[in-house]
Design goal:
Helix 4 links the parallel strand 1 (about 55-60) and strand 2 (about 75-80). The two termini are about 30 Å apart. The radius of gyration is 16 Å and the shape is globular. The protein has eight helices and eight strands. It is an alpha/beta fold and about 210 residues long. The relative contact order is 0.15.
């Protein structure tokens, strides 16, 4: 997922409102394949708190990861700047303990609310000030809460993304504990083999 300006256009130039209807066709977006879905559910179970908690899903897209977290008992707040994506997420999680807001992932419109986990997939690399966003997200955590950041570097000719070493360096001044999980080798997460850098960082700030 990516971030957007106020009319749903991505910071990378993509019009995600226009792409929303077809977004879930990618195996790791819609999680429609049972094997892919189970792989992401297993990872989330390990990354998110074991006890029921409040999870903020930033750049939530159509809500696929939100749904998995809700199925594991968590209360969900999702934020995405694409109104079309938010509409699909609301539909996907209808009847569950979940609310979805149209807003900027870098500065979520959640007021004084605090969360047990902030979940962000494929968003940080698009932001002009990633360090500032990380500080903002850290401040949205309750004591003992965690950041769950799924990122990578895509492409070989003109690669885009954020390497794991860069992200861990950004987190080092604010994180008491963190771990990195390499995800490229797990084809079940992507529905195919991948040879670029994909990873998750789970960080518990001081």
């Amino acid at each position: 997922m990516t971030t957007y300006d106020s009319d749903g256009a991505g910071t990378d130039g993509a019009d995600w409102d226009a792409r929303a209807a077809a977004f879930d066709e990618e195996p790791d977006h819609g999680l429609r394949d049972p094997e892919v879905r189970a792989a992401w559910a297993g990872r989330l179970r390990d990354w998110l708190p074991a006890r029921t908690g409040d999870v903020l899903d930033l750049g939530c897209g159509t809500g696929s990861l939100s749904l998995l977290a809700a199925e594991q008992g968590h209360r969900i707040t999702g934020v995405d700047s694409s109104p079309a994506m938010v509409a699909l997420a609301r539909e996907k999680l209808a009847g569950r303990d979940a609310v979805f807001l149209v807003g900027d992932a870098a500065a979520p419109p959640v007021g004084e609310e605090r969360y047990d986990a902030v979940l962000v997939r494929h968003v940080l690399w698009t932001l002009p000030e990633p360090r500032r966003a990380l500080r903002q997200w850290r401040d949205l955590l309750r004591p003992g809460g965690r950041l769950v950041l799924v990122e990578g570097v895509w492409g070989t000719v003109s690669p885009v993304g954020i390497p794991a070493d860069t992200l861990t360096a950004l987190l080092a001044p604010m994180s008491g504990r963190l771990r990195v999980e390499r995800l490229s080798g797990d084809r079940t997460l992507w529905g195919r083999d991948v040879d670029d850098e994909r990873y998750a960082v789970v960080a518990v700030p001081d």
